[in-house]
Amino acid sequence: MALLTPDDLRDINKQLQEADSIVRRVTGLDIKGICKTLYGTSPNSEKIGIVPVTAGNGIIKNFSASLHAITQYFGFDSFVTDMSDVSGYYEAVRSGADIILMADDHTFLAHNLKNGKIANNQPSTGIIYAEIASRNQKTDSKDVLVVGLGKVGFPGAVHLVHKGFRVYGYDTDKTLLKRAVSSLGIIPFDIESPKRFSTIFEATPCANTIPETLLSENCVLSTPGIPCAISEELRLKYNVQLVMEPLGIGTASMLYSVL
Ligand code: NAD
Ligand code: 2YJ
Ligand code: MG
């Protein structure tokens, strides 16, 4: 399980603003607009309690502060508890939180205490990055390549199949690839074949997972995967429309899904 680092979260407001403007250029909607159409929900003065968690590898510097900045960016009323863990959870509920946000090394959840809905960061992230990819305004093609079919990529692939896309999938783990092919009917993709795509969704923890032979001019690469799936050189060479941000887009998806 790849953990976020304080460095990934540096200047989260700026990263979110930049991601928002690319999402707008690619889809015609901003991140809020994507969330509203995806889940059919809108915020209604919900108060969000962010609880730092010390379990496992412990507090990630900037994590709770970044969630605070992200929730404020999306217009939510939010606060970080002074206490951590169980005491922090108690503090959040006693201070009137409607929604709890908290993460250990394995699970990052949003739990709406008012309606009982709960969201997990990994599928929520896969679904929203897949949704952004599916809204590529610059193409009529129904072909989408999904690279990485794990906890984030698989739910994203499911979403694209449900939306009627012709989904090509690739994962270095052949068992995972077989599972996705048999359960979703996606097309197993040979990463060495020279087919160029206008839309790619990538969710792996590795760098340089997309070879040049798959890129087309102005293609959309929607990727929550850290580090980046392509080099800066390839991004510039193909004018790749890169949607990549470390925490905010996935968090927005979680929050709107529990409203
Ligand atoms: P995971 O381990 O469940 O899945 C990753 C998959 O990628 C695995 O199935 C693995 O076999 C595959 N893979 C590795 N190298 C590959 C390669 N070169 N080509 C094709 N497939 C390859 O991990 P996950 O939970 O799905 O997370 C994926 C990435 O998304 C991680 O980097 C994680 O940190 C990141 N993430 C980002 C956000 C965000 O908001 N930006 C949120 C959640 C997760
Ligand atoms: O409260 C804290 O500061 C820490 N306990 C946060 C831990 C954050 N967890 C992760 O980054 C894990 N990868 C699990 C979340 C999956 C989303 N990337
Ligand atoms: Mg994100």
Instruction: Assign the CATH class of the largest domain.
Output: Alpha Beta
CATH level-two architecture of the largest domain: 3-Layer(aba) Sandwich
Q: Rough shape? A: globular
Average pLDDT reading: 98
What number of structural domains do the residues give? 2
Give the termini separation.
28 Å
Radius of gyration: 18 Å
**How many β-strand stretches?**
11
Low-confidence stretches: none
How are the strands ordered across the major sheet? Answer: 8-7-6-9-10-11
What helical percentage do the residues reach? 25-40%
Supply the key terms.
single chain, Rossmann fold, six-stranded parallel beta sheet, five-stranded mixed beta sheet, binds nicotinamide-adenine-dinucleotide, binds N~5~-D-lysyl-L-ornithine, binds magnesium ion
Explain the overall architecture.
The protein is an alpha/beta fold. It has two domains: 124 residues, Rossmann fold (3-Layer(aba) Sandwich); 123 residues, 3-Layer(aba) Sandwich (Rossmann fold), CATH 3.40.50. 37% of the residues lie in helices and 19% in strands. The chain contains nine helices and eleven strands. A six-stranded parallel β-sheet has the order 8-7-6-9-10-11. Strands 2-1-3-4-5 form a five-stranded mixed β-sheet, sandwiched between helices. Strand 7, helix 7 and strand 8 form a beta-alpha-beta unit. Helix 5 crosses helix 6. The longest helix has 16 residues. The chain is globular and about 55 Å long. The mean pLDDT is 98. The structure holds nicotinamide-adenine-dinucleotide, N~5~-D-lysyl-L-ornithine and magnesium ion (MG).
